[in-house]
Amino acid sequence: MTERLTAQNGAPIADDQNSLSAGARGGLMLQDWQLIEKLAHFNRERIPERVVHAKGSGAYGTFTLNKDLSDYTIADHFQGVGKQTEVFLRFSTVGGESGSADAERDPRGFAVRFYTANGNHDIVGNNTPTFFLRDGIKFPDFIHTQKRNPKTNMKDAQAMWDFWSLNPEALHQITILMSDRGIPATYRHMNGYGSHTFSLWNAKGERFWVKFHFKTKQGIKNLSNEQADKIKGIDPDHAQRDLFASIEDGDFPQWAVNVQIMPEADAERYHINPFDLTKVWPHKDYPLIEIGTLELNRNPENYFNEVEQAALAPSNLVPGVGASPDKMLQARLFAYADAQRYRIGANYNQLPVNCPHASKPNHYQRAGAMAGVGCPFHGSAAGSDSSVNYGPNTQQGPAQQPQVAEPPMDLAGAMDRYDKTVEDDYAQAGDLFRLMNGEQQQALFDTIASTLGQASMDIQEKMLEHFRQADVAYAAGVKAALEQR
Predict the structure, then answer these.
(1) Which residues bind heme (predicted)?
(2) Is the N end or the C end of the chain the one with fewer CB atoms within 10 Å?
(3) Arithmetic mean of pLDDT over the chain
């Protein structure tokens, strides 16, 4: 039986094809509320796109734990072999607009949400274990160099390389981005990383530092520059199409979830800063420990509702998982949730994809845009079911849970703006370069030269000196590639 057509208030619609007018040829009437509702809603069918990670794809699935981590954390989803937790994963490209091509040379976002019994735990990472910066105060400036020039409205190689030439901390990530792993063939055929250092704590109050790694079980596959250029012209949504089709066909992609764990005391004496996002922890010092499998097995029913309005944030932490002194992470703890409040609304966590699926929210936040949307998993709007909207109180409002408090973290040093250029920005970039074979190195040289060659000579010279600091052969190869342009 066909259901009746109604307006948003549920009133049945008699005619949805003709506006109310003063005569057959006359002007339209302001009282045509149906026309006004349709046009007003249409004008608002797009929310502001993300400043970064605007083009994305997402899917649901499960995380199955195969190694108990109770020695390291009280986090519910890391307790008990065989424990399964619902997940949502959003993939994305970083720099392009929402209509950009999936095959751009760009880092890929890899953002995982665990719907745990103690709230949502988000790991908002990338397909690279490092990043271009180690301090969030530089992030807006960096992203400006990746976006369009405000005068020409075109991508700006001069700005990009100018910024990088003055921030050698970016060299490790540049080397990854410009390597043959810079353009993943699909979202299924790439690794994911939490990238940041996070903390875990156990029932004894012991803290450990942790890095998360998601290793694809489909194998690593990448595109050359030539392959990517062809795909961008044929199907700019190829990665979205591949992910959706594979899940629809029952070919569920999987990733092996691994962690590196460092005892808290090790951080003080380790030879690199373990909270520096431009660095990796060598596996020989802190080996990967496989703890489970992440599988994607369900596509969203509505892209806008469940992917475009998905609001992941690294500040979504749960008992047993915390932050670290990683300066980029510290900045992102504020920036991501604040971006979601601006982009979607103050109550974005009431939307089904964002509300906790496995734990009922109870808090004292009230009102604001979208208040009362309600989480369908719990049958009410987010917050307490009572009328109490303050704490503490004597009215049986939600009570604090001191048993899940994070243990104290020792901090030392005078408050100041510390110069971080004392860090070694070249060693790990050089190590990565020397791991590449000759063919991979040549592809790296050619890819760098394709955009660096568009920058001014003084910037090219600055970058060549940075490459030289990493490895003399690195600089020589890029120089030769530049001369052949």
Answers:
(1) 336
(2) N
(3) 92
